[in-house]
Write a sequence for this structure.
């Protein structure tokens, strides 16, 4: 089991930069999520850790040892491919035992290990079947079996549930998480599904356009987004941004926005110019008395709650309110925002402004 | 599959297609069957009119099968006087056959050795073409090679003129290098002709194998060569088998270079078989016997590899 430290990792393909100076740390035993939209460099990062791609520059420390230039066979890291990549010319048993055979493990021992892994994954019944005819879930289990059988220092998983259908994904996700909790192995898991990342991860790295935007626990990333990208990528519906021009003093507790005053977490840096006032839909409350008003554009019923879309002077705002509270389309309503949860952003750079709330969380 | 189905052909279609295929097969088989039959006829039966095509039997079209053709193919014989024939009774069944014509067997013919040459040169060059072709195709498929496209075009361009167009330069070159009439020379020559086909065919097959398999093997602790050998090769089996068959068929049947560059030591069967014609009139049964034997290796090779050819690429452990 192992700690993995990524330092200024960079990868260029010719003129194209796939990963730009990334740094983050994966602690021993963590279930670590690499989250980001398609093409942001998640797979490339993962492949560099596993040794399938050599970094252009930067370091990868596995338990303090620099491994970034070593071949994959000398890293003791397992990789679960998105498309599973089970060896098609071998049956399930051979697939799972393949990594052990490469180590020259005696046959009886291999057999015992495979049986043990098969029992953990519940695939004893299919050990002698060819991999061609297996269902998606069983393929997934065999791929996992091949990864865990040799007890590597860490697991890399590239969208391992991506090839499964929605219903089964959830089930497999639980199985995977349970397996991890049982083995406690450091796992790096790539996904572009923010829900999956929030549900399964101990820590999350959010990447966008080859850059690490934020790195932290799911709560930190949800409550204290470091950039507008993170705030909008995570949560559904995502964080509201009310756009305005204004100024902000140091250590201020409130600010003036579009003619009204709003409480905010104590600021840690002064700012003047174009800002975005970020607040999550569940922290918006409708109240007739409030001076900041908007017109109800639409309501979306979700069972116990409903999402109300409002048109305000600073752009659209979505509010998550109890479904027994009425909101009629076309009506003008006032709204208040929970001051403790607000994040202010510099709209030019997309960066969150430092405050009491997000102090110590932000990176870069 | 009872009633109507979009993907499954109807029974009538199947029958029709089946009949067509069988008819076509029969038509293409006629010359082969005729050759095989002729090999077992006596010279008189071989050229009789109307033709005889039923083995045994008293009917007009029947002939008595004999191994005369095969005996003539594999032996050299001389005519002897009656006294000699009486003094020396036949030693075996083959001798008995040739006595009908007042001949005795004096030794083996060159056919066996020519046939062996064909085997050595044909299979040798096939092995070399496929071996080099696979390595080159893998490299072109997986590694960033400078000017890869130009190199591939260059490799293909060696096939843009008929090989025989360079026969004279090769003839002169081989004489200089001492490669004329040697097995090595012929193997190198056929490999040179086949290699571009092998590289191109195999490259497209290897391109079709997802790189994840090798990467999985690398992760599982294997070296790149082991990954190539244990994971890529088994999956390229289809491509390798079909490439090998194409290469073998070319090398096995090649006639022009064989006539030009080989005379004794390394002569293959194709230029040798016609020379049988000259020995004591038109010995059609012997020629037919030679051709029959000549056809067998390619046929057996193809049948052996058929499993790989038909299996096709039905993987599916990688879902795309
Ligand atoms: N071998 C390569 N050569 C050139 N460009 C590459 C190579 N591999 C990846 N890229 C590029 O690098 C960028 C990042 O790719 P990567 O596969 O890491 O994205 P990703 O975040 O995993 O996306 P997805 O969610 O679609 O899998 C992409 O724009 C991709 O086209
Ligand atoms: Mg990817």
């Amino acid at each position: 089991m192992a700690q993995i430290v990524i330092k200024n990792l960079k990868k260029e393909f010719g003129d194209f930069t796939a990963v730009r100076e990334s740094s983050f740390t994966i602690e021993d035993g963590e279930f670590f999520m690499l989250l980001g939209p398609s093409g942001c460099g998640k797979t490339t990062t993962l492949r560099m850790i596993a040794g399938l791609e050599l970094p252009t520059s930067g370091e990868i420390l596995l338990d303090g040892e620099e491994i970034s230039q070593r071949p994959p066979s000398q890293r003791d890291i397992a990789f679960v491919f998105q498309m599973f990549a089970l060896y098609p010319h071998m049956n399930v048993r051979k697939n799972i035992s393949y990594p052990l055979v490469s180590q020259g493990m005696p046959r009886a021992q291999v057999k015992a290990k495979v049986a043990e892994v098969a029992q953990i994954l519940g695939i004893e019944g299919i050990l002698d079947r060819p991999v061609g005819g297996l269902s998606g879930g069983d393929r997934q289990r065999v791929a996992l079996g091949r990864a865990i059988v040799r007890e590597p220092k860490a697991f890399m998983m590239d969208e391992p549930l991506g090839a499964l259908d929605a219903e089964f994904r959830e089930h497999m996700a639980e199985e995977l998480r349970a397996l991890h909790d049982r083995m406690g192995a450091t796992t790096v898991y790539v996904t572009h599904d923010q829900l999956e990342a929030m549900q399964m991860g101990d820590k999350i790295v959010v990447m966008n356009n080859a850059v690490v935007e934020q790195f932290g626990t799911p709560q930190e990333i949800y409550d204290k987004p470091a950039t507008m990208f993170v705030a909008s990528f995570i949560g559904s519906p995502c964080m509201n941004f009310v756009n305005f021009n204004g100024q902000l003093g140091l250590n201020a507790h409130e600010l003036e926005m579009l003619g009204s005053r709003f409480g905010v977490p104590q600021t840690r840096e002064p700012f003047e110019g174009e800002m975005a006032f970020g607040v999550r839909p569940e922290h918006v409350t409708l109240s007739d008395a409030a001076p900041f008003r908007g017109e109800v554009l639409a309501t979306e019923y979700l069972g116990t709650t409903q999402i109300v879309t409002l048109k305000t002077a600073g752009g659209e705002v979505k509010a998550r309110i109890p479904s027994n509270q009425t909101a009629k389309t076309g009506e003008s309503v006032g709204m208040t925002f929970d001051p403790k949860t607000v994040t202010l952003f510099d709209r030019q750079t997309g960066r969150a402004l430092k405050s009491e709330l997000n102090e110590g969380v932000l990176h870069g | 599959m009872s009633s109507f189905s979009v993907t499954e052909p109807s029974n009538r279609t199947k029958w029709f297609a089946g009949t067509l295929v069988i008819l076509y097969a029969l038509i293409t088989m006629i010359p082969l069957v005729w050759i095989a039959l002729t090999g077992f006829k006596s010279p008189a039966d071989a050229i009789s009119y109307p033709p005889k095509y039923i083995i045994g039997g008293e009917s007009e079209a029947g002939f008595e099968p004999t191994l005369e053709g095969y005996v003539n193919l594999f032996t050299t014989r001389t005519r002897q006087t009656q006294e000699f024939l009486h003094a020396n009774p036949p030693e075996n069944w083959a001798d008995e056959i040739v006595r009908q014509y007042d001949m005795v067997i004096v030794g083996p013919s060159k056919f066996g050795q020519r046939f062996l040459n064909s085997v050595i040169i044909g299979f040798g060059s096939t092995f070399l073409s496929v071996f080099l072709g696979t390595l080159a195709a893998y490299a072109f498929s997986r590694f960033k090679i400078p000017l890869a496209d130009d190199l591939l075009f260059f490799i293909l361009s060696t096939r843009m003129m008929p090989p025989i167009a360079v026969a004279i330069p090769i003839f002169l070159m081989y004489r200089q290098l001492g490669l004329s009439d040697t097995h090595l020379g012929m193997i190198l020559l056929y490999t040179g002709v086949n290699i571009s086909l092998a590289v191109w065919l195999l490259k497209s097959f290897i391109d079709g194998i997802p790189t994840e398999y090798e990467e999985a093997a690398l992760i599982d602790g294997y070296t790149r060569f082991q990954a190539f050998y244990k994971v890529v090769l088994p999956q390229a089996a289809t491509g390798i088998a079909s490439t090998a068959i194409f290469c073998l068929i070319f090398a096995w049947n090649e006639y022009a270079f064989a006539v030009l560059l080989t005379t004794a030591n390394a002569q293959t069967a194709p230029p040798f078989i016609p020379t049988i014609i000259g020995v004591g009139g038109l010995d059609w049964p012997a020629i037919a016997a030679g051709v029959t034997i000549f056809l067998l290796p390619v046929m057996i090779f193809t049948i052996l590899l058929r499993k790989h050819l038909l299996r096709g690429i039905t993987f599916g452990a990688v879902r795309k």
